[in-house]
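In the laboratory, one determines a bound structure by crystallizing the protein with its ligand and collecting diffraction data. In a computational setting the workflow is compressed into a single prediction: the sequence and the ligand go in, and a structural description comes out. We illustrate the idea with iron/sulfur cluster.
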Amino acid sequence: MNTKFAYTKEVAQATSSIFDKLNSQYSEAYWKSMAPYIYKINRLKKEKNAIILAHNYQTPDIFYGVADIVGDSLKLAQEAAKTDAEIIIQCGVHFMAETSKILSPEKRVFIPDFDAGCSLAESINANDVKKLKEKYPNTPVVTYVNTSADVKAETDICCTSSNAVNIVKKLAEQGHKQVLLIPDEYLALNVAKECPEIKVITWERGHCEVHERFTPEDIKNIRKRNEDVVILAHPECPPEVVDECDFSGSTSQMQQYVEEKRPKKAALITECSMSDNIAAANPDLNLVTPCQLCPHMKKITLPKILKSLQEETGEIFVDKQIAIKAKKSVDAMLEMSK
Ligand code: SF4
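The predicted complex, in structure-token form:
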């Protein structure tokens, strides 16, 4: 990384404990270019009463260097809402910043790169959902949190990759014969396999461009090359990929699995930085890293975070009425997940 800031004694002292954790990920020379940014960001966020949220797919320099809260998008937004920070810097993609704004309307939310989008969130808009509702009347609309505020506002219940099965099962128990589970087609098909008691209607255009790239052959090759490997896949992967794996779960569930069960060797079939972040915290874990990067997540960098914090650029605004309706669908999910 090219830096215009010096790696001073003060910077070295303030960041040495972070480098201790990340020295298997970054060379010392590279670290010296990043550390001044980490130092400046951490000082400035205190001065401005700001907090930094980092999704599991952010790089370790951001995840361990400057973030106050880390995790999946819903956890980030929920935890941020509990703080008295005035400013949120969202290290993730656009829909995540909107979710934070919906749950913390009184806080100012910024994204360091406004172009950090998401192939999945962009596959559907509010108009598409209205048309689906006309086509399938009296059918509950369950929407993955990886969607814009406009789409959330048109839906009945949000879901995450960890609670989608439970929510669909509860709707079946309530007597519903079919459910719209949008927009991720593969998540919906994976949920449908576990919920044969209800018809799951999918949105065929919605895919995560990271997870859709994995193939059953990739999984077979990992097994061939790594004896005793335990393979964990995100449910945004195609069902035939999930079928080849030992476990399927959200980013948090995958992390919990490897930390609790501590397999001798594990492979995480998801975005690359997730494995890097788990490896940094668990140096004794043997992780095979089949690398697929999310180009949107990787738009967020330390220099952009510093700029956004300094100049207050990339502020997220959500229309009040849309935010109220979108929050209702998030609240409905939380209520159903109790
Ligand atoms: S990993 Fe997939 S779902 Fe997540 S932001 Fe990137 S494209 Fe969107």
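Residues 121-206 form a domain with the Rossmann fold fold (CATH 3.40.50.10800). Keep in mind that any predicted model is a hypothesis to be tested, not a measurement.
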